[in-house]
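Anyone? Bumping this.
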Amino acid sequence: MGVARDSRLTNALSQNRLAMAGASIMLMLVVVGLMGPWLAPYDPLAQNLARGLESPSRDHWFGTDSFGRDILSRVLYGARISLLVGVASQTIAFTLGVFLGVISGYYGGRIEGLIMRLADVTLAFPTLLLLIAITAAFQPGLGVVFVAIGVVGWAGLARLVRSQALVVRELDFVQAARALGMSDARLITRHVLPNCIAPAIIAVTLGMASAIMLEAALSFIGLGAQPPTPSWGSMIADGRDFLRTAPWISIFPGLAIGAVVLGFNLFGDGLRDAMDPRLQGGARAPLPRTE
Amino acid sequence: MLQYTLRRVVHTIPVLLGVLIVTFILLYIAPGDPVLAMVGERFDQATIDRLRAELHLDEPVWSQFYHYVAGLIQGDWGTSYITGQPVLDGIMDHFPKTLYLASVAMAFAILTGVLIGVVSAVKQSTWLDGLGMTVALVGISFPVYWVGLILILVVSVSWRLLPPSGFGGGALPYLILPALTLGMRSTAYIARLTRSSMLEVIRLDYIRTARAKGLGETRVIGKHALKAALIPVVTAIGLDFGAYLSGSVLTESIFAWPGIGRFALNAILKRDLPVIQGTVLFLAIVFVLVNLAVDLLYGYLDPRVRYGRGAR
């Protein structure tokens, strides 16, 4: 920890061109997600049946779908949903994961046993399958998807934070503070939490990519965003029936997902290389498998 | 090894119990009355009451859970609302097709993934390495179902080389595209993992020794280095295989492959709750068991794991 190591890390990162490219893509997602309505040339929901299934042209750069809606505008609006799902679900996962992780790492014993068995059960389900089951049990829709992805994501984070907390609670200054009579609540918030939160922040940032992938998959199946909401996943599904005649309907939203996830992966790889220069690229990105 | 095996097996029991509870709760909280879903519009209070009693729906939750688990153990996994077919029969019909697809996809992923990984590691920082790792990075970034659609568009629609979808009695032409699509992500993961693991191993002393005693490069890399480098890859392969068995939902849906993923998805779209519950439970159990097998295999391959605080 400390300033010296942080600045070395930032240095190594900023010299990694691929990581910087990844960071630019992540930044672009945020900008487009916030500014989408001002950037989009058309209303993403406006139908114009006379101009349906048009191939990409000067008027419609990405073409139009079967309702004559402008694909470019819908892709730009879709960034907002992806950004929202990333932020909302990871906030939920972060809150739950860090809270339960610190509690189990700090207190240990029965509480730890219970929380970690709960984590085991959560991780025992294949992620996408569990999400499908949850969204199907409730009403399909984006709100359920946000919460479901967040709730399912807590377990990995809790394990991560717990392993950090286990180390931190044994450190001399924490032991000293306890010996001086500091209360548990104060010890946790003042000393333990700040010292084990960094890896969790990295994990949720990179976890946004998998949240975006999962939302897209659920919306593709029809359990996420409901029509006419322009989610990238549901847009790909919209194009399935027109694959022969108007492939651009599915192609562009898929490219958008790929580009964003690639950005997160590039940044994640760079981050790992910067923290462990011994490994130059290669190990598995912290993405759960969606399939 | 025996002690380690026992510990891991015992550890699995509470997890399986938790899985049972979660799948039970999922059905319990789902909106809609199961009895009404079964009898449809024919409202006859006497029949409804009789069915409620038969299904133990008039009993407290814990008793319903008991009957649920007791039924599962006796092979009664419920009956489909839509077809009236026993859920377990449906699962047994569809699972072998998923197993078939998953095995072929995984075999393809292992072959290509390990090859790309080894070449990238041996030729580190050359254009070959760059190409291999670019392909791998793209492979884990694009959604599987989208790649599947693009493959259908190019290979089946434009080139007319392979059928776009269906099972075709399991014939090879029908298998190629789904297997490629399903295996793509694993190919990418395995390639990345093999490369980084290989890079670590080829710097170790015993590899230098092997070279110093005059072994050819092919033998050093292909035998000595690869053997050690593949240990972490085995875990990845096992976990991915578990994930394939337990839910190639997207790939099966794209290619109309009659496996268990598509079976579950159809049930979800029709809100056929007993089938949803049964397939989710079955697939989660398969996933847990495959993970257990992977842990045991890992402990066997790498003795350090056995004496640590448990695998992973």
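Late reply, but here is one note on the structure posted above: The radius of gyration of chain A is 22 Å.
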